[in-house]
Model the fold of this input.
Amino acid sequence: MSFLAVDGLTKRYGGIAAVDQLSLTVEKGEFVSLLGPSGCGKTTTLQMIAGFVEPSTGTITLDGMNLLATKPAKRGLGIVFQSYALFPHMNATENVAFGLAMQGVPRTERNRRVAEALALVGLAEFAGRFPRSMSGGQQQRVALARALVIRPRMLLLDEPLSNLDAKLREEMQVELRQIQRSVGITTLLVTHDQAEAMALSDRIVIMNKGRAEQIARPDCAYEQPASPFVASFLGKTNLLAGRIAAETLSIGDRDWPAPRGIAMGAVTVTLRPEKIGFADTGLAGTVRTRLFLGSQWLFQVDTSAGLILVVRQNGGDAMPQEGAAVALAWRAEDMRVARDGSAA
Done:
């Protein structure tokens, strides 16, 4: 039996389904992310698990316990919000100790556990500091320590890193994953950041319009997207118009063997830009834009199939200039072909 089981979870506001028949299982110790654009239902899902929003239909069980029949304070969940929600008049120690005090934990035990939690997040030396004197990253660590110190059954994270700058956000991603692994706590993260979800998660749930379009390991979802939406949302991709006739897939003025199981007619082809290379022969094009990104080169190439994005690693080799005539080549197995909303 799965540690967390969500079955047919739905939340309607009038005639609008914010979450629509969502089913998901999370195993003990697993790190799962709900990923999607604003309004896709990911935060509403987290709030229903936390008990802040009542579902219209569906069930939620945690370690065999019916959460819908359990008050939020009794669910045994640790929650970290986007705003951190620290008490400004309390120092780090007092903020972390608050939940334990509410549980009636004796002072000696409380002090020991608070010290352990602050050490776990690297803030042992900041125990007496107030939130106003802390950086965003330090405040985030205090919020995480406060959630972990109560020894929750599960950790819920609602966009916890979104207020940090890019460099600090990457550093905190590494720290968050290390802490989660060291503690071994089951974690559910809500984020709109694709890179964050892929870096942190054992599995990701890509949501769109209240539904889960794909639930998979990050590498599987990236390499084998279940739909054009997943392909376009989970990293950069090219959506190319193609046509299947007989056993041939045509894109622009080039042909490839058609994949099995796709009916003849117009199709949408998804192709990751890093899968495309410059070659002696291939789909003819002209470089419109060339951008140097340090570790990579990013190109926009005009072709008979439309504008194609190409990403090449910076290995020190000479790259085509803007305006240069080029030929683009890629492997047939790197394409995902979709028709009527389903991917091959």
About this structure: Residues 340-344 have pLDDT under 50 and may be disordered.
